[in-house]
Specification:
6-stranded antiparallel beta sheet; flat; alpha+beta
């Protein structure tokens, strides 16, 4: 990587645009970057880093790039860094602009522009630049890939910070490991250690979990086996736990099977005893049953003897009932005939009463009173005559319905006529006022249109008036701000003058006592920086109130701060005056109060005009609706007149037809109120006459059937042996009484047969002659035998369940042990690897972690590369060596010692002097740069920067160090030295000087 050109605008302390031509500076191989403290030397290096990676090193990167902008820059100048460089044979140009908070182009306040980046590549054939990307992420990935280094590595390898490497030289193993880990990106090896530790913990947890499950199953087996099993006294994860559990389970299973065999034998013996007891109990129960059966039969025989008379009476009653059953049909026939005759007679009487009532309503009826004694034939003849009269009224009914329709139609015509009269009168009244209404609406429309025109004219004047009023108010505010800013500027100027006078006084006092300050640095045998003498017989002494360099720098810093505040106050005053002039130009000289009154009056007139114009649309709509209503009412008036003319002829036709129908209906209805009433009267008379004729015929028929039934009943009773029909009816049994009597007779016979059968049984008679059976004793014996059998079965079942449960749990444990074996093997392997990589294993004799081991190899390479330059810088005296010895109880691998060729002894780097520490750390930095470069894929680094530290070297050592740095040109490198040492300005001709001032720092470049 070689830097060609760097352009900075408004970056850091540089308020304007500054350019660094690295090609010119690199011609001599070495160039010096110098300047006073705070001028911005580090900002040049920050700009290079920012251009490449979009951020600056360390704590200076904050606020997402907002703090990179120079406080000395003009308000309209944007911060920008452009770097032209060559990487891997490609000439690139990187341009970056951090976020920028600028003033808004319109209105007041500020807005934030986002950061921007450009990457271009020079194409040699056409001789022009071509754009590659404008994406922050793509540019960062491209630069990182080409350089092969992260920002941290770049800052350590290209921008060599000597203070960091001096600390690295004296640091302990842990601090040294952190820096090397960042440079060589050994985080992946730490991740391997972490991953192995996590896998070890995971495998250990799985093994413990599996052992816990085994112990849980072992506890279940112990609960199932009782006292036959003892658990091993081992915790989960301890070796031998699985084997101990398997052995205890085997013993428990063997003991359980022996107990099962014993319980099975006991159950067989109990079952045999129970079978014998049950057979004896069955024999006793049978004897007891037969004895009870014989006693019950003797008791039932005695009860039958006591009810013998009642049985004979029931038999006689059943016999008389059978005889009466022969007469039963005749009795039923006679009762049915009698009921039918009574019903027919009642219906006849009711029909004749209704007939008399019906004809009594007709005063002129010729048949009134003629049907009181008429028979069925006379009544039927009268019914036919009435039906013939009813048929003649059908045409009169149709005429009556047509008359009702005519009346309704005539009433409808009258209603229509009244409605049309109302419509015509209302239309005539509304049309009489139409012209006046139309003129009023036209007037409203014209007034609203005029108001709308006025509102448009006033609207054009509103906004300029508002803007002028706002400008006037801003003018008044800025006038007050101008006075305040002028007062603050005067005060800041006074303070700056006072601070400058104080600084000059302090500086003069220090110059007066500078001899004492230089004498304080003299050492015996060392040359004086002023005269060069090595003897110092009378060095100057510091007086009371001596001013040192720190006091002068504080006074100078106070003066610079006061000057910056003065400049800032002047800038604010200028900004306020410019704003005041702009506001005055826009508002004029008119007072703000008069402008406000004019704006309010204009706003009032505009509001009134808008209010008056708001009725324009509604007036148009109202006129349109009125015109539509005028057309509707005119059409309605004409239609009403046409309908009135058509109704005159229709009304005359209806009147003529109505008169004709009324004459015909008057003749047809007679004395009745209407034809329908006359028809209903005749229909009722015909129905009553027909019903009376039917009831008369039915009464005659039922009387004849009753007489026949009486004769048949008397004959049947005599033949059955009864004196009268009443006696036969009394002897007759109904179904319920017959069933009850038959049931009692059948039960007597069944009971008698059953008693005789039981008393005739030989077994029953034999059992009755034996002593009473002792059933209770036999039941107690059988119950005791059954209880013993149940206990034995429970014992056998419990033993069987115990064996089954132990077999199941043993199989489960064996399966778990087989499944756990690979996990335990994996745990042993991972635990061994994790202990080895973490440095805690006994196999790792030096207790060195994996990351430390890799870093130790890198450190050994760095020490070898640094020694090549350190031997030249120290005239062959010192050599850096890597040491992997342990320090105290810590871990080994990152020790760094120096071998002194003058004494031949190896000692710690902390014993080096200040100058020795500087060139040792410089050699270490250069060696580290070579190793990191090789690690990054061999990317060539043609430009390096080395920070402070040269002031601690004597002339000879400084020459040797510069020779080593100058030798870097052999590899076509250029080295930039950042230093305050005045002697380097004489030795190195190519220089880049940073000059600071009140308006910001500037760069001055001198070539070889």
């Amino acid at each position: 990587m070689r830097l060609h050109r760097l352009d900075m605008t408004a970056f850091g302390p540089f308020g304007g645009s500054q350019t660094v031509d690295f090609d010119t500076l690199s011609l001599s191989g070495l160039f010096l970057l110098h300047g006073p403290t705070g001028a911005g030397k580090t900002s040049v290096l920050d700009a290079v880093c920012y251009a490449l990676y979009g951020s600056v090193p360390g704590a200076r990167q904050s606020g997402q790039g907002m703090t990179l902008r120079s406080d000395h820059a003009e308000a309209g100048t944007r911060t920008e860094v452009r770097l032209e460089l060559t990487i891997a044979g490609r000439r690139l140009e990187v341009t970056r602009q951090p976020p920028w908070e600028r003033a808004k182009k319109r209105g007041s306040g500020t807005t934030l522009d986002k950061a921007q980046s450009w990457l271009r590549e020079y194409d040699a054939q056409p001789g022009s630049w071509k754009d590659l990307s404008r994406s922050h992420q793509e540019i960062g990935e491209e630069i990182t890939q080409l350089l092969g280094m992260s920002r941290e590595q770049f800052c350590q390898v290209v921008l060599l910070p000597q203070g960091d490497f001096a600390r690295f030289l004296r640091a302990d193993a842990e601090a040294r490991g952190k820096l090397l880990g960042r440079l060589f990106d050994t985080h992946r090896f730490a991740e391997v250690e972490k991953r192995l530790a996590e896998r070890r913990r995971g495998a250990e947890a799985q093994v413990r979990e599996g052992d816990a499950a085994l112990l849980a199953d072992a506890h279940r087996m112990q609960q199932a086996a009782g006292d036959a099993m003892r658990l091993p006294e081992l915790a989960p994860g301890e070796p031998g736990l699985a084997e101990a559990i398997l052995g205890a389970a085997a013993v428990a299973r063997s003991t359980a099977r022996e107990q099962l065999t014993i319980a099975h034998c006991g159950l067989l013996a109990a079952e045999s005893a129970q079978a014998a007891a049950e057979r004896a109990l069955a024999d006793v129960r049978e004897v007891a049953r037969l004895q009870r059966r014989f006693a019950e039969a003797r008791e039932r025989a005695g009860l039958l003897e006591e009810r013998a008379d009642a049985h004979r009476q029931a038999q006689a009653r059943m016999e008389r009932g059978r005889k009466a059953e022969v007469v039963a049909p005749a009795l039923e026939l006679r009762e049915a005939a009698d009921a039918e005759h009574r019903q027919a007679a009642t219906a006849q009487v009711r029909a004749r009463e209704l007939l008399r009532d019906a004809f009594a309503d007709v005063a002129d009826s010729p048949a009134q009173g003629a049907f009181a004694d008429a028979g069925a034939v006379g009544l039927a003849t009268a019914a036919r005559r009435v039906a013939e009269e009813l048929g003649g009224l059908e045409s009169a009914r149709r005429g009556e319905r047509r008359l009702a329709e005519l009346v309704d139609e005539r009433a409808q015509l009258d209603r229509q006529e009244r409605a049309d009269d109302d419509v015509r009168l209302e239309a005539e009244a509304w049309l009489g006022e139409w012209e006046e209404t139309r003129v009023a609406l036209q007037t409203r429309i014209e007034s609203a249109q005029d108001a709308a025109n006025r509102a448009d004219q006033l609207a054009e004047r509103r906004e300029p008036a508002r803007q002028r009023l706002a400008a006037a108010r801003m003018r008044d505010q800025l006038a007050a701000d101008t006075d305040t800013a002028a007062r603050q500027t005067t005060e800041a100027q006074d303070q700056a003058l006072k601070a400058r006078a104080h600084w000059l006084d302090i500086k003069e006092q220090r110059l007066n006592g500078i001899a004492a300050e230089l004498a304080a640095q003299l050492q015996d045998g060392e040359p004086c920086a002023v005269c060069g003498a090595v003897d110092h017989p009378a060095p100057a002494r510091k007086d009371v109130g001596h001013v040192d360099r720190a006091a002068e720098e504080r006074a100078q810093a106070a003066y610079q701060q006061a000057e910056e505040r003065h400049a800032e106050a002047e800038r604010r005053l200028g900004v306020v005056r410019e704003a005041l002039a702009a506001a005055t130009a826009e508002a004029g000289d008119m007072p703000t109060s008069r402008l406000a009154e004019a704006a309010e009056e204009l706003e009032r007139l505009y509001t009134q005009a808008r209010r008056d114009a708001s009725g324009l649309h509604s007036a148009h709509e109202e006129l349109r609706r009125a015109e539509a209503e005028h057309d509707q009412r005119t059409a309605a008036h004409q239609q009403a007149e046409v309908r009135a003319a058509a109704r005159v002829g229709h009304r005359e036709r209806l009147d003529r037809e109505k008169a004709t129908l009324e004459a015909e209906l008057a003749e047809a209805r007679g004395a009745a109120g209407s034809v329908a009433a006359r028809a209903r009267q005749l229909e009722r008379q015909a129905a009553l006459l027909t019903e009376a004729a039917d009831t008369s015929r039915a009464a005659e028929d039922t009387a004849q059937r009753l007489k026949t039934a009486d004769a048949r009943l008397a004959d049947a009773a005599f033949r059955a042996g009864f004196d009268t029909p009443q006696a036969a009816a009394a002897a007759l049994l109904d179904d319920a009484a017959h069933r009850d009597l038959q049931r009692r007779l059948d039960a007597w016979q069944s009971e008698e047969a059953a008693v005789r059968a039981v008393l005739a049984e030989a077994d029953t008679a034999t059992a009755a002659q034996q002593p009473p059976a002792d059933l209770m004793s036999a039941e107690h014996a059988a119950s005791a035998a059954a209880r013993r059998t149940r206990d034995a079965a429970s014992t056998r079942d419990a033993a069987a369940r115990r064996c089954t449960e132990l077999d199941r749990l043993s199989a489960r444990v064996a399966t778990a042990v087989r499944q756990l074996a690979p996990l335990r093997t994996e745990y042993d392997r991972v635990a061994r690897l994790a202990g080895l990589t973490s440095g805690t294993s006994a196999d790792n004799e030096r207790k060195m972690r994996l990351e430390s081991y890799v870093l130790a190899a890198r450190l050994e390479q760095v020490a070898a590369a640094a020694t090549a330059r350190l031997r030249r810088m120290s005239s062959g005296r010192y050599t850096l060596v890597h040491s992997d010895d342990r320090t105290g109880r810590g871990r080994s691998g990152l020790g760094l010692h120096v071998v002194d060729a003058w004494t031949g002894r190896e000692r710690d780097t902390a014993t080096l002097s200040g100058g020795e520490t500087f060139f040792a750390s410089l050699a270490l930095a250069l060696g580290l740069a070579d190793v990191v470069t090789d690690e990054a894929g061999g990317v060539r680094l043609d430009t390096l920067f080395i920070d402070e530290g040269f002031g601690s070297l004597d002339d000879q050592t400084l020459d040797e160090v510069l020779d080593v740095l100058d030798s870097l040109r052999e590899r076509d490198r250029s080295v930039g030295i950042v230093s305050h040492v005045p002697d380097l300005r004489r030795r190195i001709h190519a220089q880049l000087e940073v000059v600071k001032g009140r308006s910001g720092s500037v760069l001055r470049q001198r070539g070889a």
